[in-house]
Amino acid sequence: MTRVTLYGGRTWAGRRVGLLGGSFNPAHEGHRHISLLALKLLDLDYVWWLVSPQNPLKSTRGMASLEERLAGGRLVARHPRIIVTDVECALETRFTAETLAGLHRYFPRTRFVWLMGADNLTQIPRWQNWTRIFNGTPVAVFSRPPYSLSALHGQAAQRYRCRRVGQARARGLAEMQPPAWVFFQNPLHPASATEIRKRRAQAAAASGGQPVQ
């Protein structure tokens, strides 16, 4: 089971699947770190990396092609239960709320959990129809420096504070009726896509402008 297609609902029926969305520009060990934690702490069967064709909140400048980002994701994931997919292209969605609605429609018997870092919990009120995300899908948030404290005092955390689940109950999150969310005080990973791109650009400049892989 290595591909995700819109017509694979039967294949994924009954599975507990974490969804990690993003540009993955590039994918890095921090993404893998969160995915492995999610598999363990949430008792998931799989994690799907939803490689976005284009994040509406991010500039296209410096954005690698979708094919490059998918290939890079597969190199980094290197785990049989982490699936790197461009299913958003098939869904023809641009916003997370739309993507989740589409996935629930095509995979009605799959138990999804939306995965994100604390930085995204801080900024999620800027996302289109963001309350539909919490109201439609259980959410797991992972610590990420230096955003954790501000995230827990932010608009989203405060709005859904009564629906927060303790870490001790997290293994059952996929089966819970949303809104339901958990915040993990997990071991941190320092990897950052922004820093990786910055180092690559500096290396390219130092080598006379030639791309550095």
Structure description:
With 213 residues, this protein is α/β, with parallel strands linked by helices. Helices cover 38% and strands 16% of the residues. It contains 10 helices and 7 strands. It has helices spanning 9-12, 29-41, 66-77, 87-91, 96-106, 118-123, 130-136, 148-152, 155-159, 193-206, and strands at residues 16-22, 46-51, 82-85, 111-117, 139-142, 164-165, 181-184. Strands 3-2-1-4-5-7-6 form a 7-stranded parallel sheet. Helix 2 links the parallel strand 1 (16-22) and strand 2. The model has no long low-confidence stretch (mean pLDDT 89).
Distance between the termini: 30 Å
Order of helices and strands: HEHEHEHHEHHEHHEEH
Give the beta-strand count. Answer: 7
Instruction: Give the averaged pLDDT, no decimals.
Output: 89
List keywords for this structure.
213 residues, 16% strand
Architecture blueprint of SSEs:
Layout: H1 9-12, E1 16-22, H2 29-41, E2 46-51, H3 66-77, E3 82-85, H4 87-91, H5 96-106, E4 111-117, H6 118-123, H7 130-136, E5 139-142, H8 148-152, H9 155-159, E6 164-165, E7 181-184, H10 193-206
Parallel strand pairs: 1-2, 1-4, 2-3, 4-5, 5-7, 6-7
Brief synopsis:
The protein has helices spanning 9-12, 29-41, 66-77, 87-91, 96-106, 118-123, 130-136, 148-152, 155-159, 193-206; strands spanning 16-22, 46-51, 82-85, 111-117, 139-142, 164-165, 181-184. The protein is α/β, with parallel strands linked by helices and 213 residues long. Helix 5 (96-106) runs parallel beside helix 7.
